[in-house]
Amino acid sequence: MFLLSLVAVLVAAALYLRNVGSRERGLPPGPPTFPIIGNLHILPTEFIQYKFTEWARQYGGIYSLKMGASTTIVLTSPKLVKELLENQNASTADRPASHLVETVCGRFHLSFARYGALWRTQRRAAHAILGTQAVTRLFPIQRAEAAQSLHDILASPESFYAHLERYAHSVIMSAFYGTRAPRCESPEITAFFEMIHDWSALNEPGAVPPVDLFPILKFVPGWLATWKRTAMKVRKLQRQVYFGLLDRAAERIGMGERNGSGIEDVLERQDEFRLHREMIGYLGGTLMEAGSETTSSYLKTLILCMIAYPDVQRRAQDEMDRVVGVDRIPTLAHLPHLCYIQALILETHRFRPTLPLLLPHATTATEKCGGYVVPSGSTVFVNLWGIFQDPDLYDDPEKFEPERYLLTENGAKPGVDADGLKPNLSFGVGRRSCPGIHLAENSININVMNLIWAFDFQPAMDAAGNPVQPDMFAYHKGLGTAPLPFKCRITPRSAEKADIIRREFLDAEEVFVKFESGLGEEDKEFLRKSRRQG
């Protein structure tokens, strides 16, 4: 009897395993699967957006991958993104379960949090401090930081890469924590960007072993698993930066020093929002991650494109000079009159999106999309890279051409059905869209205008005096991407503009001082020296 029972169990197990990894009836098509592992063996471990796009050209705007017994849906069609993630947003707002995320930051990271009461609590607080009215209140510090960014690039153009990172991070620090980072070497800057590069690399699909599919991998010792050591390093740095800033802010507020930053509202309304310390720390951390890396990455790409496409640069500068003039710095009030600059901003988002794959969604109910079944518990990727490089949507998508946004609102070919192709698609879709979109758009808009108004961007020269054209595909790997450090020549467009930049920087001191409480001695000395020099 025992033998018969054992045989029955083995047969049942064999029948079950025979189907594991196979594509179920009704799923979208996709690459051929292998028993048990499905498509895991053909999943790239870096720059996965290129493979996702290759498969999209073969299998269509919606296809499926099998990750063991789990299903992944890849959307490379704006129409299908709208159909599934916007029209069915209540059942597609979850995130996939992630042992990596749990290891690093528990359940409290707003971007990766599972959909539910905890996420809604943090999201409500984020909206309260980053809504239109709050962002308007914070704009003076954004503009002041942008003025320093111009001044820093004028003083040391070879370090523009670091200056853009300082700007983006200092704005978010000021907006949420009420404390700025005045120099590239400020401790919060160096620790944050060391952390974010590792965190982004860990979160790239395929970069970490499939722990969630094969839980036994959790027990591999750290000395054999590089990703585990990196994850603990990231956790340590996150807590050092996020909770260190939180404690400094609480101390400053306790001393009666208020400057209108978001943390003041959060701590004042902590009981109303039902937030505890862990939630507040990771709320601020999430906003810093989302704002710092993406904004600085975007501006680095802008400069890269100005070097590679000098005709675009000249046309943008001509429009800037015609609308703004040469004797004053641009403001957001000028943007509605700068049609080509607006097109340039949108084309930079399209040409090299900072998140080639939006953060994955997960379904909590079985849905239909494109005539196919999307099972409950599926992981859903939006292949933004594939959408923005689709030749059926765009003429010459591999070229940087702002003019396409002067022809149509969404940049697509005239007459093409581009339903769902929104200009702000880069900021996410459905209920998981970026809560800091207004702050981010202000940062991008004012800095694009400033950089075009202020500087000429040209290729670096080699030893023989020949221009070195930049590699437009030399980007960091990871969930979020940015150009690898590159060299270029940045020069002020006139002596008069250089004088205006110095004056604007000195005038910004009145705004800065409200955000400089508690700075370290090295930061204070840097400020004294830079303000004396102007």
TrEMBL record:
<keyword id="KW-0325">Glycoprotein</keyword>
<keyword id="KW-0560">Oxidoreductase</keyword>
<dbReference type="InterPro" id="IPR001128">
    <property type="entry name" value="Cyt_P450"/>
</dbReference>
<dbReference type="InterPro" id="IPR002401">
    <property type="entry name" value="Cyt_P450_E_grp-I"/>
</dbReference>
<dbReference type="GO" id="GO:0016705">
    <property type="term" value="F:oxidoreductase activity, acting on paired donors, with incorporation or reduction of molecular oxygen"/>
</dbReference>
<dbReference type="InterPro" id="IPR036396">
    <property type="entry name" value="Cyt_P450_sf"/>
</dbReference>
<keyword id="KW-0472">Membrane</keyword>
<keyword id="KW-0479">Metal-binding</keyword>
<dbReference type="InterPro" id="IPR017972">
    <property type="entry name" value="Cyt_P450_CS"/>
</dbReference>
<dbReference type="GO" id="GO:0020037">
    <property type="term" value="F:heme binding"/>
</dbReference>
<dbReference type="GO" id="GO:0016020">
    <property type="term" value="C:membrane"/>
</dbReference>
<keyword id="KW-0503">Monooxygenase</keyword>
<comment type="pathway">
    <text>Secondary metabolite biosynthesis.</text>
</comment>
<dbReference type="Pfam" id="PF00067">
    <property type="entry name" value="p450"/>
</dbReference>
<keyword id="KW-0812">Transmembrane</keyword>
<dbReference type="InterPro" id="IPR050364">
    <property type="entry name" value="Cytochrome_P450_fung"/>
</dbReference>
<feature type="signal peptide">
    <location>
        <begin position="1"/>
        <end position="22"/>
    </location>
</feature>
<keyword id="KW-1133">Transmembrane helix</keyword>
<keyword id="KW-0732">Signal</keyword>
<dbReference type="GO" id="GO:0004497">
    <property type="term" value="F:monooxygenase activity"/>
</dbReference>
<keyword id="KW-0408">Iron</keyword>
<protein>
    <submittedName>
        <fullName>Cytochrome P450</fullName>
    </submittedName>
</protein>
<keyword id="KW-0349">Heme</keyword>
<dbReference type="GO" id="GO:0005506">
    <property type="term" value="F:iron ion binding"/>
</dbReference>
<feature type="binding site" description="axial binding residue">
    <location>
        <position position="434"/>
    </location>
    <ligand>
        <name>heme</name>
    </ligand>
</feature>
<comment type="similarity">
    <text>Belongs to the cytochrome P450 family.</text>
</comment>
